[in-house]
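User: Can you predict the 3D structure of Transposase, IS4 family protein? Sequence below.
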Amino acid sequence: MASLTANIQTQEERKRSLPAQLVVSLVIAMSLWSKDSMRDVLKNLIDGLSEAWLKVGKYWRVACKSAITQARQRLGARVMCKLFHQLVKPMATQETLGAFLQELRIVVIDGSCFDVPDSDENARVFGRPGSRPGTKAAFPKVRLVILVEAGTHIIFDALMWPYRIGERVRALRLLRSVTPGMLLMWDRGLHSYAMVQATVTKGCDYLGRIPANIKFIAEKPLEDGSYLSWIYPSGKLRKKASQPILVRIIEYTIEHPDNPTEQLTYRLITSLLNIEKFPAELLAREYHQRWEVENTIDELKIHLLGRKTHVRSQKPREVVQEVYAWLLGHWTVRLLMFQAATSAGVAPLRLSFTGTLRVIRRAVPKFQRLNSQDLPLFLSG
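Assistant: Sure. Here are the predicted structure tokens for Transposase, IS4 family protein:
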């Protein structure tokens, strides 16, 4: 945790028992000990320091719940957001197994929803799903769209917003973090001309699935069974004189996972037009790396938190703070896994996420037995 908080430059007006550096660590640790109370999470954070302090006659009183709440309110959400964007970057190298297709870094964009506590403020800001007349959904919900490096499961950008706003709009904004040298994958729910155009504008290649109701004309059949076609702008973009974009379409069938006698038809759209370097069979096989994002969401919502209501905070600003801390908690685990896998020469995805999480929980108190000056998080008194 110290490596995270060292990047925060917060000026305290006076000495506090819960300085900003400690509160940052505490909010991140909420996801590492997701089923513990806030006071117990704080105790876990300072447990390893107790022995060293007692030897020199110092004592640190564990703050009460209201003091922790006030400290989180002082910290706000912007610090956690900036910390996330400052620290989290794609990590894979060319030697990282499964992270690249040829020279292209595979990244995936997808979205998910999660429950937040049923408070009036959360309901007003984030909204609830639709329900039958005369009833209401049990919890307000928040949408989260993430960009994931497929070979490491590192979430290197994310956006959250109210439930009522669809994923496509925010997915387009998330393209701020794609760069040349990446291969962006998306599912059929995010397919659009605007998505293709924005990705091409960023100089990033793409491989996405096409909805069944979207039709393409085979302008030029290719030797590997794929064909070239054009994707045309929507009505609004056509009025802005947007031009059609040359694309390549790949069609194939796979066995239905629940019914072996049934076939599922997949259609993919891509900017990779070179069939010798990127044959259709290779791209069809690689597209299913997109499902790595589902495993990443599972790590977030099941293994890291494992709570019925994933977020604890009763107020919207603290919800935002907690979500970015949640993402930083996931990054902490995944970064350690990447470093361990690189040292061992194995793929990061071969390591156990839950096993690594248990290692971190055990290691935190041992790490804190370092000299107190090496961990400038606390003020004893």
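The chain has two domains: 1-75+351-381, 85-299. DSSP finds 14 helices and ten strands in the chain.
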